[in-house]
Amino acid sequence: MSEPTIESILQEQRLFPPSAEFASKCQIKSLEDYQQIYERAKADPVAFWESIATEELHWFEPWHTVLEWKPPEVKWFLGGKINISYNCLDRHLQTWRRNKAALIWEGEPGDSRTYTYAQLHREVCQFANVLKQLGVKKGDRVGIYLPMIPEAAIAMLACARIGAPHTVVFGGFSAEALKDRLLDAQAKLVITADGGWRKDKIVPLKEQLDLALAQNGVPSVAQVLVVARTGQTIQMEPGRDHWWHELRVGISPDCPPESMDSEDLLFILYTSGTTGKPKGVVHTTGGYNLYTHITTKWIFDLQDTDIYWCTADVGWITGHSYIVYGPLSNGATTLMYEGVPRPSNPGCFWDIIEKYGVNIFYTAPTAIRSFIKMGEHYPLARNLSSLRLLGTVGEPINPEAWIWYHRIIGGGHCPIVDTWWQTETGGVMITPLPGATPTKPGSATLPFPGIIADVVDLEGNSLPNNQGGYLVIKHPWPGMMRTVYGDPDRFRRTYWEHIPPKDGQYLYFAGDGARKDDQGYFWVMGRVDDVINVSGHRLGTMEIESALVSHKAVAEAAVVGCPDEIKGEDIFAFVTLENNYQPSDSLSDELKQHVVKEIGAIARPGQIRFTDGLPKTRSGKIMRRLLRNLAAGQDVVGDTSTLEDRSVLDKLREQDH
Ligand code: 7RM
User: Fold this and answer.
1) pLDDT tens sequence across 556-610
2) Which atom of ligand 1 is nearest to the CA of 423?
3) pTM for the full model?
4) Which of the chain's termini has less CB crowding within 10 Å, N or C?
5) With a 6 A CB cut-off, is 419 part of the ligand 1 pocket?
6) 395 ligand 1 Cβ < 6 A
7) What is the pLDDT of residues 359-406, one digit of tens each?
8) Is 421's C-beta closer than 6 angstroms to any atom of ligand 1?
9) Could you give the C-alpha distances from 56 to 25, 117, 601, in angstroms and in order?
10) Residue 526 near ligand 1, beta carbon < 6 Å
11) How far away, in angstroms, is 6 Cα from ligand 1 center?
């Protein structure tokens, strides 16, 4: 399988309209329906969002103002009082959904659990009461560093219930990365587990947390709450560390939800940007609840009997919005899986779909490409006929993978929703609606109602169809990030200043390149900044560079992305060594391991190339464009006249052959 080129993607003309039978059962049944809703929302976004907020969510007190937009500061539903855990749990208890499965969980070693809405509510209330007993108050930040176990969702909802913003750190991050995030958020308490199951091995989460907290590493953290998962022996520090199963004994299952202001902080989630330091993306309560609710409802066309499965990890925004908050707010049955496909269990996804009769399946292109490689006999050996709808997220999908997904997993009859969005956007922005939008393999198609998207040049001018440019959003939406935690200036610089306001209108800069075709369909081409997307995981090249130069042997490092068949992109590092070090395979392995220690396994460079020097401009800037060419095994193209020392490039090229 070859990587798609921009040309091959743009030549993709195949059109897959939903079948009349499928469309007839959907909430939004035709392209005309979509267009009508879209135009209504565009003409008056405030009225559109207000009507959905009224119809779809429970508010303790109504708002007095729908939108206050003082760019880049935005507020939605000012004065409104709400609690997202109430909308995800309590309100369903008054209906027949009380005894419906809310959360189905499949553990990696084959154990499983199901919680009804009533049971999940009880768990969340108890968890919330334990947090309160440990001194957590409204506004206190709580770190969550857990494997994919039900307690992850329970902990998030418990925090939301008492108004304590959570910051979930992906369990694959190492102690160093965890420490940075806990420090930035000034977490007061951290919830972790003795360990997690990952690919037949135990991830020592508590041990990593101990390292992060060692020598008063994060002074704000006073308490640690530990969930027992693997049963392995861990150190418990008296006074600081507590077992969840011990503290919950005798704790009341009643915990009234805190009445939150619509704009109260719901969570902080760290994501990679252009500089070395990850950004704390801030989401608030009312707008996020509304946006994840309505996007889940319409994009996945949720029906009350559906079993819905999103394979993301709750450590990422996809897990927040489309495993926990969006589905539960809709009263859906959401499935959560602890594992990831591994060599010893290449058919695990298809086993789970068959076992639970999954109807809606949402995963990443990188996973699809790895299934293609494993072979279609695994999915073909299972009964996947329960599937009704498929989704993808995280990176562009190449048309070949799209077609395979459609044919082999979807049996040729399931629409595919290719959903473009970001940590910053809170929820899906550009996507087909399954009963309405004819899809084209590789295109995320059209913006969600209420979203005004465009492709512009650096001056903010709208570009004609089929011309590449920058993807921007032109009107605020309820799910958008509010700021970078503790750094409003970075928020302004990163998202609102690359492209200046156009005719007084502020443009949200997504950091992606895109074009629109003649039908107005969006084709997202990938990042235009120093962010790379490895297996759908977003990483900053500078973060990896800082990790590399923190090793004593490394003088300088430059990291770029290079095309990879399965991962989409892989990490390619150019490294110059300190005088007394020599390049070797063992040093290369040591440096890769060092990055794993500093950040986590997801950041392990695929390749390290030692070099005597890095190609730089006369002003000392590393010419990454050249390095990207070299890493991709292409000849260096474009202007090299600004190079300070040509011989550096010539040497690197020689190495290439
Ligand atoms: C949800 C998520 C965001 C970046 C984004 C894009 C890329 C995500 C798609 C996509 C093409 C898609 N949040 N991206 N979805 N590119 N088509 N359907 O992934 O913050 O981790 O990453 O991911 O580059 O800017 S994220």
Assistant:
1) 999 999 999 999 999 999 999 999 999 999 999 999 999 999 999 999 999 999 9
2) 20
3) 0.95
4) C
5) yes
6) yes
7) 999 999 999 999 999 999 999 999 999 999 999 999 999 999 999 999
8) yes
9) 20, 18, 40
10) yes
11) 17
